[in-house]
Design a protein that fits this description.
535 residues, alpha/beta, three-stranded antiparallel sheet, 16 helices, 15 strands, 43% helix
Length: 535
Amino acid sequence: MNTSDRKKICNLPGNKVCFDCGSFNPTWTSLSHGILICMKCSGLHRGMGVHISFVRSLDLDSFSEQDVKQLLCGGNQTCRDFFEKHGGSTVTGIGTGTGTGKLLEKYDCNVARLYRETIKARVHGRPEPSMNDIILAAVPSNSTMSTGVKQIGGDDTGTGRNNDKLVYHKNNQSKYSTGKLINVEYFVGALKYWINRLILLPASNNRTACVLILVIYISTKIAIVKTSKVSECNNNFVVIFRSIHRFFFFLFTSLSAIIFISSCLSIKWFRVHRQEAFKSAMNSFQDRVNNARVKRNLLYDLYFPPQVSVGSHVSKAIIFFPDILVDRTAYAFVLGKISDCGILVVAVNLDPMRLSGVITNKISPDKMVSKIGFEIQHLLGIKVDEWILMSHGEGACAVSHAMRVTLSKAPVVVVAQNTRERFVSPHPTRCILWSPTSFIYDLRKMNISTLVIQAVESSKVSCDGCVEELIRRLQIKVPSNRCQVHNVVGGSHSGFAHYGPATFRKDNVQRIKSLGDQQNEVRDVSVEFILRKYK
């Protein structure tokens, strides 16, 4: 769905709040009724079955032209007026029920069936049906009307858990289907991931060695061509040159085979090891949405500090890159607590692939940082004094890439055409790495300050070790003279967020601390680093 269509849909009367419970800024839809609902109510709608309510997400799902027409023909106020006209005010109303059973009374009735058929008639330009048509048709509540989709799950408690799965018909071309199309997308994404991890990143961190290898390979190739034309040339040299050339050819071929095999296996890996957010994290996120403290966009989630809104001014803002395969909603607790300390927090969206690295949603990390900075400062009018990058796990690769590219260039100044106001693109010189991997670009020559927070077992903590030694053990390439390392004793890798246990990158330590204690400690250390006056 493009931005203009989404704006039209959200601006329809009544679409600013959930049709069922009244929560602000709903981001889910019931296509069957052309209404907008919140994340919690979407779980209840899924529980009723797709023959009653077909649920889609404005942020995560794709919409056909017909779907958009159906949403534009509907609207929350249009649906509410129709219900009240044909069934009385008792059929609808904000907050009428907290379970699937209550919703069935509202949506599995002749009035709701009439409205669903009326919406379809408006979309296709057919005459609108009457109540007599619906009664004569005698559509039962367990109708076998085929929609091409079977929805599995649905939480009777109304939580709308993220792990409710969608199984699509083979003719459905949604990118979240389990058909052939998604296999190709997973393979292409995995191919980019392994090329970056096994070729681009090592080559970038070891440029001298790579240039030397390339020179040797080209030189041996030229030498073989020249010596083959000279018959009196010593055969021993020809054998040596050809052996070196074959060695490099074998090396390149083996590396290509490893990347191809890893990409094929990753089609399954990247599905099986996806980490969904806990129910508590989703509820926390929804609570902040209801209180207008967080806004979910297509590219990122924006956590507002208290008393901060459009046109405000903040001194610090962080751009957060989640770990690989982890749902960004899992960080709702800790990122929300950081925003409570007066810091603007932006959580980057890695869906649908959730692969951190050089490419994030077809945008490189440095361009993603610039785009976020422009939208927040220019479109939302929020002035930011300093930008800081933060990551968890393999998100450190994206952070290091963004800092390496951004700091190598001068800050970009954008002048708004209408107000002539100047906006400077983010130029971060500080970063925070939560439990980083060694999959990181070399930042040792950069003039940056770094905070590294790692989870360790109590028996393995070495307080006497210097920062250089700790960085060497972590195998991360950051300036040791401007680096601070903090050990979370008794924590774990997955304890930085509400998900787990971690499977793609398994926790190497067993968590002893509670999630709340670990995340409170991480928050306190991170906030102290962020608010510290930069020298």
